[in-house]
Every structure is written in structure tokens, then in C-alpha cells.
Amino acid sequence: MADATATGPTTSGGIVELRVHGVSGAGADQVLDRPHVHQVAGDRSGGFYRPRPGYPDSTGTDGVTLEAYRWSDLPSGTAVRTLSLVFLLPFMLCNVALWMRPAETASKRGFMALCRVLALTLTALYVLSIVGVALDLIAWRCMDTPSCLAGRSGLSWLGGRPPGLRLGVLALVPVAAIGLVWWLGARPGHSFDAFRTPATTTSKHQLSAVGQWDGEPLVGRLRSVHVAAAFATLSGSLLAARASQHRSWVMVVLLAATGAVLLACLVLVTVVASIDHTDPSPRVDGVCRGLRTIAAGVTMLVIVHVVISPAPWPQGGSLPGYGAIVAWLFVSQTVLVVMLAALVIWRRGGGQRRSPLRALGAPVFMTISAGLAVAFSAELVYRVADLLDRRGTTADGLATSPPLAYKWAIFGFFLAVVTALLVAGLVTRMTRGQRRRAARAIVAADFPHAPAQAADRLRRVEQAVARARFTENLEPLSVVYACLAALGLATSVLGLLQLPPGEVTQRYVGVPESMVNFLIGSGSYVIAAILLGLVVGGIFAYRTAQFRRYVGVLWDLGTFWPRAAHPFAPPCYAERAVPELTKRISYLVDQGQGVLLAGHSHGSVLLAATVLQLPTRITDRVALLTYGSPLGRLYSRLFPAYADDPALREIGERVGWRWINLWRDTDPIGGWMFAAHRPGEAVTLTGPVATVDRRLTDPQDVVPAPSDSVPPPILGHWPCESQEAFTEAERDLIARLRPAPIARD
Q1: Which residues form a coiled coil (predicted)?
Q2: CB–CB of 591/12 below 8 Å?
């Protein structure tokens, strides 16, 4: 792509304003606020655009050259995003949790080990859910029940066959499911080869490592380990069923091999530090690939043994050992989450601002990830059981009833969701007065002379400010939900004791068993509704710009961080975006330009990681303008080891404190970096940090302008490029970037 710096209006010694959009997915013409743009660098996934020369208003404030970086297509295409948002969401949340570790580095290794073991349990759960459908419900139960096979020609061809043959044939279904996630994990997204950066470290803060991350070696190793664990899970399920009435030296060898594979997977993700090396390591890579091959081979041998073994099989009931394996997996996840929370609470350190619940994002996100994975798996098994059981209205028939662990999981998930919603409603009610009083004071200070006819408009502004302040309540609410979800997982141990939820609650709580069964069925429909909502939300997110602002936050937050915990999570777009921005900014400065970086919302996070990568000779000619930025309000809480106060201060120092941050009280996502600077509030900071934040009054007025018939809109999190305050901030930073005139005698 030809570069406009060689042929366009930019001249040596000029200023280029490089704008980076947020999660809205706006087009380059919207980011630049110019109707005619053309691409000057990059490609269709991530490209740099400028106004076409020759058209009116093709330059920016004070004649600067405008440029926009559009990265919204980097995460993936629309269809992949929508499906991934549903099926890969637990994997993505698990991966994000790894980057939420406390600022203290002493617990880093143990923290990573726990997160990666939990990631392995999610892969095992994925396989067990397919095993539950294909082997337990269909091969073992339905094909052994004439009433279930009646009218189902697609299944009856295996009816009456030996159980080993049925299990062996249907075992190909989970094998195909493993192959699917293996292919999805290995499927290349966008080519990032041209965007690798040197391994030189320019900042001591770890946010700079996000863009320098070459994740392919680590992701490849983790992918091999997870595929090996998936095959071992399938082998263990088949061997547990076969071992119920048959033991031989072949069984002992296969069980030992399966156990050795699982143990090797645990050792690789917890003990072997070289798995994290970003450079190719033939020894470690070979071990991981070899383990994957061995695991696949053992699974094939197990399937053959199950098919040809002449020993009799037990009759009736569920697949032997399957319910116990599922229950123990749920219990293991609960124990690991508790250990992770204990480690975080014990080792959490500084760097976390304005948060009473410091550094708890990791166990919360990991619990939510495990809870969603359990709920999705339980819903799959429960719904298939319900479809197979044509005699009843729920999946409680003797022939095709799902394992008790899944029933407890659905029951616990439903109670956690309902309780969390009730607590959220209670918190909303209890904090409404406080938030409204604070909003009323803010609005009164902003519009002290508002006329009486603006009373309704003032109430609307107060409501917008009060709603935006509710963001601070999401953190304790998420902790409450995580605790409830963990308790729901813990109840799965009752499945090991063969205690149905209805019987337990009726005996010890007094709730009728029929009511509990109704709640389990309702919980199943709630999970189905959540899945459907995610699909519909994913579709609407890329058809409606306003809706995408809310759904896209989750997606762009999750895919910003490299895959360091779960290899089946969606790929990280920062591996290209940050190095690409670094290369472009360095090129412009080397051409003699000053660069004003302007980032909205998540675009400011990309620019923060970029600034921490730039060498001093480049940052001396760089200024930073952020607006609607979540760095101080959200990222410093969620990622204390990567976006703490020292990292923000280093960003300011690197650009010579040529940094202005614009924020609004009506914004539920963005906020100030160092100080609020509200009218009437005491100044608590001095020095250059006190000059960074500038508060924008939103709306600009509560009465219509003389030339208009409606008052200015409440913008909230929307960009502010067309506002006068944005132009003033541009002029301020442009003046600081331009060299002072040389005095003449």
C-alpha cells in the first residue's frame, strides 16, 4: 500500500494526528469525521486511513494531517465472532483471568499453574459433555432401550449390538469434537508475521509485553497439551466403563498409559517453565507434540479394546463410572477456584486504586468461566436426555436421565443466577438514593442557572449520571455471583453420594421434590435462553452500532490479551495491532513528523501499550489524547499487574506529560486517570499528573441553543471529536509538540 507521507500533503516538521477508535467498530470516515477517505497503509483487517487530498476540510485542527487506524476487523469475521462468543466464551474468560493476577510477582508461578490447571479442566469438561451425549445417553442407554429406539432409524441400526461395539462406534463422536476444537485452535487468523517486534524491553511495566508477545510457540505447546488431555479424558471414560466388570493386564497397561498422559499434561502446565518461552524450543515442542500423538494413539487402542473385549458388560443404569468422573471434575474445579482465591487474597499487593475488593478479578472471572462451562455442558446433556425421553415432560425418565452431577449443576446455576439478580436488584435499590444525590450535586454544579422549564431535562441528566455511577457496584456484585456459583459447583459432590436434588431439599430444607424438579427444568430453559441470547446478541452486535458498544466491550476485552491459559480461546489481536501502531508511529517520527495519538475507549488501551514500547527518541515527538478511556476506571482494577498507577505515570513520563484525558460523568465505562477535577472539589494532586485529566460537561447545555429546537444530547461514552473541548485539547497538545520559534535579534 502506498504511503501518503511520500506523496500527500504531509511535510517534514509537521504534525500527524493518529486516531484509534474503540469497540464501536466505526468506519474510518466516522473516526476522522470526513466523508472521503483512502487507505495509506495496512490491509482490510487493520489499516491506516487519511482524508483524500483535494477535498474541502481534508486537514485537521491547525492544519495537522489526520490519520485513523481501523482495527475492528482484526479479532475475526462476523460469523466467527458470533459463534465464538457463545461456544468459546468460557475459554476466553479463563484466559483473561490469567492476566488478572495481583501486582505482587512472588505468587506468579503458582497463580499461573492454578489457572492453567483450571483451563485443563474446562477442556476435560468439554469432552465429558460430548461423552455424556454420545456414549452415556445414546450408545449405552437409548440403544439398549427398545422404546427409545422406536421410530429412530438413525439409531436403531446399532440397537441390539454388543455394548462394546456401540461404545466404540459412538466414541468417534467425541473424537470428532476434539478434532474440531483442535482445528479451530490451530486455524490461522490474520498473518502477524510482519508485525513481530524485537525482544528489546523499553519499559519495566508489563503492559508493554502485550504487544511484544509472540504467542504462537506457547499457544502451540498448550494446544498439544490440551488435545492430549482431551484424548486422555475420553480414554479414561471408556476405561472406567470397561473396568466395572472386567480387569486384565491390557486394562492395567491402558489405564497406566492414560494416567501417565494426564500426569504429563499437569506437569507441563505447572512445573515446566520453558513452556512459556516465546522462542521456538525443539525439545519442549517435541515433547508436547509427542505427548499429543501418544494420547491419540492410546485412545485408538482403548476404542479397539472396548470393541473386541469378550468380557460381559453390566446391564441397565448409566454408563459405569461416568457420573463419578463428572462429579469429581466439578469438585476439583471448586477446590482449584478456592485455592486460587486464597492465593490471591494472601498475595495481593499494591497497584490497585480505588477498589475495596483488590485484585479479586482472577478468581471471579475463573469461577464465572467454570460456571458457564458447567452450565453449558449440563444443558447439552440435559436437553438431549429430555429429547430422548419421549414419555415424560422432563429429563427424569429412568432410561435416559442425565447424571446427578449435571442436575445439581443446573440447580446450583439457576439458584446462583436468581440470587445474584435479587441481590443486584437490592443493591440497585439501596444505592439509588446515594447515586442520585451525588448526581444531583454534579448536575447542580454544572448547570447552576438552568431555567425552570429545563427541570425535566435536568432529571434526565441526573438519571444518566446515576446510571453511569452504578459501574462501581458491578465489582462486588460479580464477587457475590462468583461465590454463589462456587457453592453451586460444590454441591455436585452430592452426586457422588447418589443423592438427587429433590430428595435432599425435601428432607433437609422442606421444599417439595416436585418444586425442585420444576426449578431444575426452569434452570435448563434459563441456560438455553442465555445461549440463545448470546447468539442473538452476537448477530445484533454487528448490525447495530449502539448495541455493539455493550456486547463488543466483552469481546474486545477478552481478545486483547494473548492466549496464555487456554489455547482454544479466540486469538489475540493485540499481537498485530500494537506492533503495527509502533511501526507506523516510528516511521512517521523518523520522517520528521510529530505524532498526536488520540485514542477513544479501548483504543486508548492499545495506545498505552504502544507508548510503553516506543523508544525515547520516538516518544520525544509524541503526545497523547485519550477520551472515554477505561484505563483508570476499569483496567487498573481488573489488571493490577499491568495497568497500575506506576504504569500510567510512566506513560505520562514517556510522552513528557504531553497527555490530556477527557472524561464525562455520564460515561459508564471511561473515567479519569489521576484526578476527577469536578467543580467545587478540592485539588488533591500537584505536578504534571494534575494536568492530565479534563472533565467534560455532558450534555453541553440543558436548553436548546438559539439556533436549535432541541437541547444538546447526552453523549455518555460516545466519542467527542466534534466537540469544542476536543479541539481545544488538540490545540494544546499540538502547541506542545511544535518546536518553539527561534528568537532573532
Answers
A1: none
A2: yes
